[in-house]
Amino acid sequence: MSAADLRARFYAELDPALAAHPDAVLVLAVIGAGYVSETITRRPDQVVDVGIREQAMVGVAGGLALAGRRPIVHTFAPFLVERAYEQVKLDLGHQDVGALLVSAGASYDMSSAGRTHQAPADVALMAALPGWTVHVPGHGDEVAELLHREAGGAGRVYVRLSGQRNARPQPVDGRVHLVREGAASAPLVLAVGPMLDVVLAATGDLPVRVAHTGTPHPLDAAGLRELVGPTPRLAVVEPYLAGTSAAAVAAALADRPSRVRHVGVPRDAELRRYGTPRDHAAAHGLDAAGVRQQVTELLERPT
């Protein structure tokens, strides 16, 4: 696993994070254990591997949180969010306790393993539960900062790790930041997490401004409103289910006449093929060519 990989950076930072926060406990369901074997040997009282029992993994995390510990729960996104959703809802949310959930695999990183290992709806599901913050980092430095900050926190936090990444780290302060300037009246393209480099490549010669956020939920409504202006034209490019941020964007712009295009994994069709993550990105219109086409369509629509 490359050192530049977001998941590899998470594993590399786990031991120092656990050392700095003695109340933190890593909870696994086998997946990932092989990458942190030294940490398991060094800190047996801070690592729990429940076996291939993802619902039990989240239940154990809830019990640890009720006992005053800080659980860091990790496995692939479909197993952590979709398979254990009831436990996330009840054992963490309904009990009003905190935990740090860290997933891997994203929407289709594990495309060769089939649909069981894909989770384009994970952020939408987490955003449907009250009290959660969702971070979608695009660089290893962002992963490290989030882990060290949230390992000592108390809130309910979901961090989505992806095989896709940006060349440079971006702020992880929860705000929307302007990355590429342009005319104040130019449409804004908001790239979420690791989609930034794709968006920059896709729109390099287009008359648009580009912004970025690594925290799509809760969305920085004030920052978005400031950037889009009084008559917004906006494209939101997300690396998961298209329209996941639609309600938050609509609420932020409710008092303004706006045109918004949501670019992401389509909701109306399921790709029943294996292939590579690059194949899936192209099929879903989430490569540079696909993003460019959809942003161009937004530009061509009358204001």
Overview of this protein structure:
With 303 residues, the protein is of the alpha/beta class. The chain has two domains: 6-160, Thiamin diphosphate (ThDP)-binding fold, Pyr/PP domains (Rossmann fold, 3-Layer(aba) Sandwich), CATH 3.40.50; 177-300, Rossmann fold, CATH 3.40.50.920. Helices cover 37% and strands 20% of the residues. It contains twelve helices and eleven strands. It has helices at residues 6-20, 37-42, 54-66, 77-83, 85-94, 122-127, 140-151, 196-202, 221-228, 246-252, 277-283, 288-300, and strands at 24-28, 47-49, 70-76, 99-104, 132-135, 156-160, 177-180, 188-192, 209-213, 233-241, 259-265. The strands form two sheets. The chain has a six-stranded parallel β-sheet, sandwiched between helices. β5, α7 and β6 form a beta-alpha-beta unit. α3 packs parallel to α5, α8 crosses α12 and α9 crosses α10 (246-252). The longest helix is centred in the N-terminal third of the chain and has 15 residues, at 6-20. It is globular, with a radius of gyration of 19 Å. It starts with 5 loop residues before the first helix and ends with a helix. The model has no long low-confidence stretch (mean pLDDT 95).
Strand arrangement across the biggest beta sheet: 2-1-3-4-6-5
Provide the CATH architecture of the largest domain.
3-Layer(aba) Sandwich
CATH superfamily of the largest domain: Thiamin diphosphate (ThDP)-binding fold, Pyr/PP domains
Order of helices and strands: HEHEHEHHEHEHEEEHEHEHEHH
EC number: 2.2.1.1
Pfam family, one: Transket_pyr
GO molecular function, one term: transketolase activity
Keywords: Transferase
